[in-house]
Specification:
heterodimer; A: 83 residues; Non-ribosomal Peptide Synthetase Peptidyl Carrier Protein, Chain A; B: alpha/beta; Rossmann fold; nine-stranded mixed sheet; 8 helices; 41% helix
């Protein structure tokens, strides 16, 4: 699975969790996920949906830089699914 | 915690900001809604005012609910020179909103603000609800050491280090087990988004400096509910009973399978407990004692 594939599936999950289309211009960079205004439960649902979609379990050791942006999560998952 | 437990955790600041100037350049963010006996929620270090929306849905239909950010917290500005300022800020806010009397709900370190307010303004307090109060009849040594260790964590590793330190302490066994890594990461991300290192440092320094002055409890006549989870790191049932003896007009209630944050872990039980207490005080049937 390429990084582009992972990102596309992530964005699809995110739209499902938000229950609305994503903005055309997504914020990027560290902390950018916060700019989308997810509530705590939406964030939790997003993380749980990722576990289901990619057949993996999150680990407590994941750095905060990973979980604060789509790019960070994408890179983390791309690496994880290739292992 | 289970996903459904935190279903409504939204703590975003909406566009309807109300700011109260307290006179020294500081402005307090507040929200006031509903009708009925007034419940004023005094935020603590890691709970911003907007979070209370999620823990008051059962109380909201029958109560007027005031929430606000402490100075130098959330959407409030200013800095705190001393702990007493929080007490003065609360008086100023109540004055501005023409609230003559209110129930005060404090949690963790903010229970000290509620206690000080009840001592300074006894006529304005209909009742006290002190959730996970850190004060002890035996003094403040333990609480201060805990606050100091949290402050050291912030200094050494910022908000992330503090979160990692407090997460397994403030949540109970069951919540942590059921939440798993997904809940840990989601709440960590939320905590980091809402709390700056500078604010946490300042607020924790206040907690270190705050005096417990246990003898003040004896000066409080207001009906008081001492409420805690049975898995609360900061107190025990016996400590609460000892504090209730000092207060004289207090009852102790313990929520099972719950840590330091009963409003988050056992929201329904938390709200029901407050609702029962306020109803009992309002209809004159409140009696000191214990309930579990």
């Amino acid at each position: 699975m390429t990084e582009a594939d992972v990102k596309a599936r992530l964005l699809s999950l995110l739209a499902e969790v938000l229950q609305e289309p994503l903005p055309a211009e997504l914020p990027s960079g560290p902390g950018s996920l916060r700019a989308l205004g997810l509530t705590s439960v939406q964030l939790l649902r997003f993380f749980v949906a990722i576990e289901d979609e990619f057949q993996l379990a999150w680990d407590d050791d994941v750095d905060e830089a990973v979980t604060s942006s789509i790019e960070g999560i994408t890179a983390h998952l791309t690496s994880a699914v290739r292992r | 915690m289970k996903a459904e437990t935190i279903e409504s955790w939204t703590i975003e600041y909406d566009g309807t900001r109300a700011l109260h100037p307290v006179g020294d350049g500081c402005e307090l963010y507040y929200e006031l809604r509903g009708k009925g006996p007034t419940l004023t929620f005094v935020s603590t270090i890691y709970v911003v005012s907007t979070a209370w929306r999620n823990y008051t849905s059962r109380l909201a239909p029958d109560h007027r609910i005031l929430t606000y950010d402490l100075r130098n917290q959330g959407a409030s500005s200013g800095t705190a020179e001393n702990f007493q300022q929080h007490c003065d800020d609360l008086a100023s806010l109540l004055d501005a909103l023409n609230i003559e009397q209110t129930y005060l709900v404090g949690t963790s370190i903010s229970t000290l603000i509620c206690r000080d307010f009840a001592v300074a303004h006894p006529d304005r307090v209909a009742g006290l609800i002190l959730v996970g109060p850190p004060f002890s009849p035996w003094g403040s040594s333990r609480r201060r050491r805990i606050a100091q260790s949290w402050l050291s964590a912030v200094e050494e590793g910022g908000a992330r280090r503090l979160f990692d330190l407090i997460y397994p302490i403030v949540f109970g066994d069951r919540a942590i087990a059921e939440g798993g890594s997904a809940a840990y990461l989601a709440l960590r991300e939320r905590f980091l988004a809402m709390n700056s290192k500078a604010q946490l440092r300042a607020n924790l320094q206040e907690a270190v400096n705050a005096g417990d002055e246990v003898e003040k409890l004896s000066a409080i006549n207001a009906p008081t509910l001492l409420l805690a989870g049975d898995d609360d790191f900061s107190t025990t049932e016996s400590t609460l009973h000892a504090a209730s003896t000092l207060l004289g007009n207090a009852m102790v209630e313990i929520i099972p399978e719950c840590g330091h944050l009963p409003y988050a872990e056992k929201t329904k039980e938390f709200e029901n407990s407050i609702g029962r207490f306020v109803a009992a005080v309002e209809d004159g049937t409140f009696t000191p004692g214990s309930r579990q």
